Each structure stands twice: as C-alpha cells, then as structure tokens.
C-alpha cells in the first residue's frame, strides 16, 4: 500500500470518529496495511473507548514497538494496565513516560497531529496512584510532592487534592487521556489528495460546426441525418474573407505567385478570373490556384453527406488540365498587386536572378553584370564565402552548365527573359581551406510524397544530401527535384560509388 492510500484511509477513519461512528473508524484503521506508531496508538484509544482492554494493550504494544520514545503511548498503556488492575506494570509505564519527558514540564503533541499536552505533574500523579494501589503510601506522597515542582497554575488544584487524599491514605482519581482525541494526518498532505485541474477547461473559440461546445477528445462520430437545420455558413466562415472551397486535386505551382495545395485543403476564393484561375487564401498565404481544381464548400447536411461519401470513396478520375493564364483575365495572385508587377518585369534596368538553393531566393544585379559582381551579390545574400559557392545553369553541375570566372557572361544573360533568369546554386562548407565533398545517398525504399515540399524517389535512386532537417528528416536533390524525405528510407554511400 502506498503512502497516499494510507493517508486517505487514515483521514477517512478520523472523519468517522468525528461522526461518532467508532466501529467503522476502527475497521478502517485495522484495514491499513502499513500502520505507523500513530495509527496503532489511535487503534488502542478506540479499543479503550469500547473497553476492549486486551486489544488496547496489543495496540499500544505495537505503537511503542514502532516508536520507543512516544511518551503518550506509555502513558496510555499504563492506564490500560491500571484498568486491568496490573498496578506494577502500570507503575513501570508511568515511570517510563515521565522519563521520556526528559525533565520538561510538558510535551505538546500538536505538531505531530495530536491535540494534547502531556504534563509531567499529571504523569507523576498517576505514578503516585499506582504506588498507593500497591500500598506504598510514603512513595506516593513523595511523588506528589515532586509533582509540585512541575505543576502549572492550571494543574495546582488537582495536585493539592491528590496530596490531601494521600495524607489520609485515600485513593484519588487518575488522570486519563481525553476520549476521541486521536493523531490526525497532516492537513497539508490531506489537501493534496483532492484532484486539481491545473489546466482548466478548454473553450471552443472557432469551429465549422455551429454551436460546437465539445472541447475534449473523442473519435469521429456519425452525424445525425435528421438533425435540426443549420445555417448555410457558420459564423467563423462568414467572418473570414472569401468563399470557402475544398481542394479536389493536388496542384504543384510553377510560378512564385501560385500556391501548392493537396486534396482536402480548404481555401478561400477571393476572386475568380475569366481564364479559370482563382485568387485564394490558404494558411494565411495568398496566391493562384486553378478554379477547376476546387469545389465550393457548402456547410449543410447535404454537403456533409456528400463529403462523407467523397472521403470514403476517393475520386478515381484524373485531375483536369492546367488552364492557360491570359494577361488581363487572370486575377492578381496577392493583395498588393506584386504579381502583376513581376510579370511586367523590374521597374529599373537591373536583372532579377532567381536562385534555386536549399531554399529559393532572388537577387538584383546591374544589367549584364560580370561574374565577380554576381558571385559577390550571392555571397552577401547567403553570407558564405564566394569560393564556397558554385553557380550553374542547370540543376546538374557539369562543365557546360557551371558558371565561373572563365564563363562568358554574355551567353548567360542572353538566357534571361524580361530581365529575369533562373540559376542553380550550391554551397559547400570550408575547413582549413579544403572544401567538404558532397554527401551522396541511395534510396533503400521507394517514397511517395504526401506533401508538396516532400521529395519522391524510387528504390535505388541516387540522392544528394543538402541538409539535415533533424535526426528523422533530410533535405536532398534527386532527378532535378528538391525536397525533404525520411532519413530511414536512405543510406549513405561513398562518393566513388556513384
């Protein structure tokens, strides 16, 4: 039994005593498996109240066995012996109780959970009474005189009456322990037994389900077919800008103003163009998505039923063809009109160089800049030394595609369209002037991406490691595509093994 269980039963038993239910309290105390000296003391006191002196004696024996310095336990066992008329044993226990006081006037047991003060003068009075019962009246008188040295004002009258009786060799009443006063568990520990809700109750702030107040955890439940009618749109959707639509097919963007979405995403259409492109908001980002990839989301019982059918049986048809974008008919891909400005090209004569790195970024350079200006601009952007950067016209670095100081930059800039050009960039770390070689991996399992940022590959494909996202995910380059993938799907191979 744990300490918590013992504490709980102890508190229950004391509560029963407060309710005058002594049999139940005694039953609970006896049922405690790991009893300490205080619990045995309480059991002895309850047996004394029910006048079961033999059981009380055994309980006080156990209490003293657990704590040989518990003076009040010797005092109570002495009273038990006295009531059994075993005066010699009661005398020994009263004397040991007085010895345990160690010359102090009293012991206050309040700190131990017992509201009782054991006075030395009262213990000596019981010692004198035991001597008197044995016929030793002179010793009884000596003990009472000694009790005067330990008396307090409150106990003076009691000692005086006992002295008067002893002088006339008449017995007097013993000092008894008060009834129903027991050791109680620490109130601070008892308070901790109550369960506390430190997190509080969650509150639903926004939900697509009207009047949704559920904030716990539960599996998906079937919807009631004949439930009450619901509004066409819940308040949370009406508060958002645009019309809610569900994505039916995966869309991979080809330009910077398009958004990547997968089936099941919910987007908000801001504007639909005549060329079948729509300006939408998804995850606080704004961009273009083909409208024929979307389906309007109707918040009604009928649409919920259709949605369940669609989820249970995924569409088998192929996604529609990508619509052609027509100038003037395609909506703006962002709220500030930057997309349209980008299509028109830079406002000045500078060239915009888009670089595909472990992430995509762009830099602006003067028209037909030499290689030194271009590499210095990229170096400042990446905060990497120019010697550690390799630029190329394609994703694969070859002698024909690499751009270095010997490259004729006129041929590079001739590839630009509307003063825009896309290049590939690689950077290697340097240690003591020596570049670290690339790390190459081989796929030991095939992996199909479930998100636009993932990298798909087949078993046996060679992958160039770009970065380690964490211990479980890597970022790499395979077949001209970059993305992240599980580290457990690949293993490292030597460079000469490629």
Summarize the structure.
This protein has 498 residues and is of the alpha+beta class.
Entry keywords:
498 residues; 15 helices; alpha+beta; single chain; 19 strands; 5-stranded mixed beta sheet
Characterization of the model:
With 498 residues, this protein is α+β, with helices and mostly antiparallel strands. It contains 15 helices and 19 strands. It has helices at 3-18, 22-31, 37-49, 53-66, 71-83, 87-100, 120-133, 137-149, 156-167, 187-191, 235-239, 301-312, 338-344, 371-382, 409-413, and strands at 106-108, 117-119, 243-247, 266-272, 277-282, 285-290, 294-296, 351-356, 360-365, 389-392, 402-403, 420-427, 430-431, 434-435, 440-443, 462-468, 473-478, 481-486, 490-493. The protein has a 5-stranded antiparallel β-sheet with strand order 6-5-4-3-7, with no helix packed on it. A 5-stranded mixed β-sheet has the order 9-8-12-10-11. A hairpin with a 2-residue loop joins strand 17 and strand 18. Helix 1 packs antiparallel against helix 2 (22-31), helix 2 (22-31) packs antiparallel against helix 3 (37-49) and helix 4 (53-66) runs antiparallel to helix 5. The model is unreliable at 224-239, 300-316, 335-347 and 431-435 (pLDDT under 50).
């Amino acid at each position: 039994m744990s300490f918590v269980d013992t504490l709980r039963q102890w508190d229950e038993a004391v509560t029963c005593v407060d309710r005058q239910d002594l049999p139940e309290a005694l039953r609970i105390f006896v049922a405690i498996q790991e009893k300490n000296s205080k619990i045995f003391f309480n059991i002895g006191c309850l047996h004394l109240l029910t006048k079961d002196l033999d059981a009380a004696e055994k309980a006080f024996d156990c209490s003293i066995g657990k704590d040989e310095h518990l003076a009040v336990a010797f005092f109570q066992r002495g009273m038990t012996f006295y009531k059994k008329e075993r005066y010699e044993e009661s005398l020994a226990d009263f004397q040991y109780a007085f010895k345990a006081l160690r010359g102090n006037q009293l012991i206050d047991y309040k700190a131990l959970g017992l509201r009782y003060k054991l006075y030395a003068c009262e213990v000596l009075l019981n010692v004198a009474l035991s001597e008197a019962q044995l016929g030793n009246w002179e010793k009884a008188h000596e003990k009472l005189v000694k009790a005067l040295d330990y008396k307090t004002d409150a106990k003076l009258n009691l000692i005086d009456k006992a002295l008067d009786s002893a002088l006339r060799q008449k017995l007097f009443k013993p000092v008894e322990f008060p009834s129903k006063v027991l050791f109680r568990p620490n109130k601070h520990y008892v308070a901790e037994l109550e369960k506390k809700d430190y997190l509080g109750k969650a509150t639903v702030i926004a939900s697509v389900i009207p009047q949704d107040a559920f904030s716990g955890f539960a599996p998906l439940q079937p919807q009631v077919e004949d439930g009450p009618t619901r509004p066409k749109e819940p308040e949370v959707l009406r508060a958002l800008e645009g019309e809610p639509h569900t994505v039916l097919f995966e869309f991979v963007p080809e330009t910077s103003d398009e958004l990547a979405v997968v089936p099941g995403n919910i987007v908000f259409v801001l504007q639909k163009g005549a060329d079948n492109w729509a300006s939408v908001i998804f995850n606080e980002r704004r961009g273009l998505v083909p409208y024929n990839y979307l389906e309007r989301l109707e918040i009604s019982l009928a649409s919920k039923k259709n949605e369940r059918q669609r989820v249970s049986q995924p569409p088998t048809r192929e996604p529609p063809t990508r619509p052609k974008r027509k100038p003037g008919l395609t909506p703006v891909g962002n709220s500030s009109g930057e997309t349209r400005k980008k299509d028109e090209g830079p406002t000045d004569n500078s060239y915009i160089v888009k670089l595909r790195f472990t992430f995509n970024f762009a830099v602006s350079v003067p028209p037909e800049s030499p290689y030194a200006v271009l590499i210095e601009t990229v170096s400042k952007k990446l905060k990497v030394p120019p010697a550690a950067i390799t630029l190329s016209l394609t994703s694969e670095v070859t002698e024909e595609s690499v751009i270095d100081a010997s490259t004729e930059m006129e041929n590079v800039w001739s590839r630009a369209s509307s003063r825009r050009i896309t290049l590939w960039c690689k950077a290697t770390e340097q240690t003591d002037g020596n570049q670290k070689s690339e790390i190459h991996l081989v796929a030991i399992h095939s992996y199909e991406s479930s998100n636009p940022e993932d990298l798909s590959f087949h078993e046996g494909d060679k992958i160039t490691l770009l970065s380690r996202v964490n211990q479980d995910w890597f970022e790499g380059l395979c077949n001209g595509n970059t993305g992240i993938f599980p580290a457990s799907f690949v293993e490292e191979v030597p460079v000469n093994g490629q």
